[in-house]
Write a structure and sequence with these properties.
The protein is α/β, with parallel strands linked by helices. It has 21 helices and 17 strands. It has an 8-stranded parallel beta barrel with strand order 3-4-5-6-7-8-9-10, surrounded by 8 helices. Strands 12, 13, 14, 15, 16 and 17 form a 6-stranded antiparallel β-sheet that branches. A two-stranded parallel ribbon has the order 1-2. The radius of gyration is 30 Å and the shape is flat.
Amino acid sequence: MALLHPTGNPASRHLREVDSPELFRDMFPYAKVSRTPFDGVFVDSRPADPMFITDTTFRDGQQARPPYTVRQITDIYSLIYELGGRGGLIRACEFFMYSDKDKKAIEACRARGYAFPRVTGWIRANLDDLRLAKNMEFKEVGMLTSVSDYHVFLKLGWDRKKAFEHYVRLASQALEWGISPRCHFEDVTRADIMGFCVPLAAKLMELGRAAGLPVKIRLCDTMGYGVPYPGAALPRSVPRLVRAFTDAAGVPGECLEWHGHNDFHKVLVNASTAWLYGCSGVNSTLLGFGERTGNSPLEAMVIEYISLTGHDEAANTRTIARIAQYFERELDYRIPSNYPFAGKDFNATSAGIHVDGLAKNEEIYNIFDTTAILGRPVPIIITDKSGRAGVAYWINQEVGLEDDAKVSKSNPAVGMIYKRIMQAYEKGRTTSFSGKEMMSLAKRYMPELFPSEFERIRSMAKKLSIVVITRLVETLEVRGQGNELYPCLEKFLKEFSFVQFINLTDTQGRLLASAVIDPAYRDTYYERLPLGVDLSSREWFREPMRTGGLHVTDIYQSLFTGKLVVSVSAPLIDKEDNITGIIGVDIQLEELLRRAESLDNDDDNDDGATPSGPPPDAVTDDV
């Protein structure tokens, strides 16, 4: 067997020009499953120092789901910071920068002021996009750098020399503008490594040294063809790919990243292998979201890092549970119950952990102390052996009841649930009760533990009403009495047809202006309210004057229109933080809920920008 030694031989860095594309048909026959050849060449493991993680949740991750709003991006960015940014384990997050929404998200995340993860960008390999990055004052930006002949010849219609010169020219311009280019070697596991990739990487390193700025290389396993096996041949061998770049091309390990896809179920092991052979950075996404089969899961790489290094303090692993809750509650994404670390029942076993087993020793079945490390106690599986104590334990844990709110095994409703469970086994059932079945029984016999549909709607209505009133307050200032002084009220009604009535008062409660949406209501009490009328006794006026904050009523039926409405009010504040007036709005519930989704998006994108992401022609296999 041969051993590939580090040579750094300049002779290996010459561009190999070809007349026709090298498609490696022995490995990629296309009409058949791809092959993994072995050539007897091995490389020694040489773990990267340091090891770190970078994130592409807002770039590659958004290609696999509906776009996040600006608020959601900012929330998730903060969760990533809490997970591993605080200590520098998660070094960077990358963002699209094309739409107005992208730019708002970048600005909002920069405003958090975190040292890590750094906010970095992503662009196509053209000068206009690079100029955009310069104007947005990026210090580092990822550039799409396709390296396989599949892309260079078949997609771009170039040859290797043209691609080489184009990438070098663009990287040179980035360096001249003070931007560190992060060159994404797209489709590297189908590329000619020694004939194209190594010469290009070596040239980029030369440019970086001359400019005094780092040039980074991201190895993009676009199709998931990478394999971790010792002795596998290039370009599929992850160990040999990493060592070719560090040893033959002279790329420092800290300037090298691995970006994998999961087409062949190897995304996690390939990322770990890249670390073990000298690639410092592993690029990941939360929950593995990503184009096609997804990327290496960020939370999994955090656990893997701790496993490899023993640096428990590098991450706050309990944040993983908060991330899972955010995706389920805020984004309505259902994480598979058996999904590692984040799934609801990932550390449960259908072999029958029950209360007695937990009392004896949970370590028999649990992978580690999930309560201490993830904030996730061991869930139990309900069977005919669980007993009433098991049912009570399940309810307390899954509903989140604590202290005095916990139900006991003697609770009559617990007894009724247990009775239904035992009846099922008496009739021949042999499987355990699923979480969904148990939740259904709990809601049936203990409905007081769960919010009603009406309460859920009321909560949503209040949340959306706050969005509406906030938008209106931003456009108003007190100018005196008279509707003609406030044309923005009529304009606002045209934009938000679910608003039934708007009134503006001074600090004494005297009506300064009002507006009604529907002509049919203009002969009602609303229109007959004279300017100057005293409304100071109304709750919607009194509460904002008392607290200086927003006030939202419960849902009620309007006496004047018969519609279900919510009244929301807020103070107008001047530059000295003094209240100058109160704005009140009556909102039709039915119409508000119809507009719920678009309203949430409007709140983050009030200038009509398109959803986050690149223009259609920017979407590539690497994204």
